[in-house]
Amino acid sequence: MLVSAAVCPHPPSLVPQVSRRASDQLREVRDASLQAVRRLAGDEPDLLVTVGAGGATRRWGPDAGGTLHDFGVDAGFGGPTPGLPLSLTIAAYLLRAGEIGCAAHQELAPDAPADACSRIGADLAGLAERVSLLVMADGSARRTRQSPGPSDERAAAFDAEVWRSLGSPDPAALLAIDPDLAGELWVAGRPGWQVLAGALLASTGNWSGELIHTSAPLGVGYVVARLHT
Question: Among 44, 64, 125, 229, which residue has the fewest nearby CB atoms (within 10 Å)?
């Protein structure tokens, strides 16, 4: 059963070695993410699983790892078996920085349907008596003129509704996110949020949500949230 979750963003520049200048802009995001991750450890889960978008839907064991070679940094995080996508590589970085172990990594195809994501969440929640999830999920990359994608006036409102749904928390609203709209707004986090929703719906308890940090320092919507019973 799910007992807690943290939601964090996954820009590569969250790792200080990737870009010193960008790292300075993301210091608050990184500090908030590490706070959320360390609080997961305090929940004493029997199983901690990272969740994030990648190239396909598949599950990796604790020996999986990833590198940041494509971003000019000779650094790897996680286990010795290569293959983790960026989102889960950054998760492995946060876990190492927080001195926390991980039992599995759940990669998600970017076009995974909402119902499939929900089923994966329910499955993850049932893997142990006490399960915690670390969900790596960026908001829209079309927030401003400095964004990776061309700015879109819908982006800020989209992110604000997601942040509300995480803080409530409101799993039905997360499952109702339109994949087509998310794609148009360059939202990487949609599958991860919907896996989280499925895990919440499959678990008992009175859930509370806390928005630890929200910002868009690089023109991308970033949220750090904690959910717990």
Answer: 44
